[in-house]
Amino acid sequence: MRYLTFALAKGRLAKKSMELFEQIGISCDEMKDKDTRKLIFTNEELGLRFFLAKPSDVPTYVEYGAADIGVVGKDTILEEGRNIYEVMDLGFGKCRMCVCGPESARELLKKNEIIRVASKYPNIAKSYFTNKKNQTVEIIKLNGSVELAPIVGLSEVIVDIVETGSTLKENGLTVLEEVCPLSARIVVNQVSLKMEHERIRKFLTDLNEILKVNN
Ligand code: PRP
Question: Which of 47, 55, 129, 210 gives a 20 to 30 Å CA spacing to 161?
Answer without folding.
Answer: 210
